[in-house]
Specification:
It is a single chain. The chain is α+β, with helices and mostly antiparallel strands. It has six helices and eight strands. Strands 1-2-3-4-5-6-8-7 form an eight-stranded mixed β-sheet, sandwiched between helices. Helix 1 packs across helix 3. It starts with a strand and ends with a strand.
């Protein structure tokens, strides 16, 4: 059975292909700038299907749709535990996230990450890592609000400059 994580304001559950139109509607230029380009119907469908396969096999990516109290899709949050592929330590999970324009500034991503951290701790993950472009000022504020330690700037395996934040779970 697929997980559903919730608090009093949001619900996290895996995406389905029925989410493609809402995802595409929320995929704006700001999100595309930081996440490698704008989604198409085909790429969104493929991304969701790949994530569904990860859920079936149990790893290495745990991807959740973020839904508000009205059950509207407002963004997504993901943990990738492929530490070797990401150049992280064993027991680490790389956290990625995006919130759609209509939902920004409402605290959804912080709540989603907090729920995801509990989920990861139950799976035996020891530390969460958030890596953000130093130019992405909105995303830089998220890990700081959530009590992550700022480890400074570094270079990813792909050569991108990223600010790294970590938190013990």
């Amino acid at each position: 059975m697929l997980p559903e994580l919730t608090d009093d304001e949001i619900v996290l559950r895996p995406f389905t292909v029925a989410d493609v139109p809402a995802h595409l509607a929320g995929d704006d230029a700001e999100q595309a700038k930081w996440l490698g380009g704008k989604s198409t119907e085909e790429s969104a469908r493929s991304w969701i299907q790949t994530n569904q396969e990860h859920w079936k096999t149990g790893e290495p990516i745990y991807n959740f749709a973020i839904r508000n109290a009205e059950d509207q899709l407002v963004g997504w949050v993901e943990a990738n535990v492929d530490h070797e592929g990401l150049g992280l330590s064993e027991g680490d999970a790389n956290i990625s996230y995006a919130v759609y324009p209509h939902a920004r500034g409402k605290g959804y991503v912080g709540k989603a990450i907090t729920l995801l951290e509990s989920f990861l701790a139950e799976k035996g993950i020891k530390r969460s890592v958030i890596r953000v472009s130093p130019e992405n000022t909105a995303s830089l504020a998220v890990p700081m609000r959530l009590g992550y330690d700022d480890k400074g700037d570094g270079v990813s395996k792909d050569g991108d400059l990223l600010r790294t934040f970590t938190k013990q779970l």
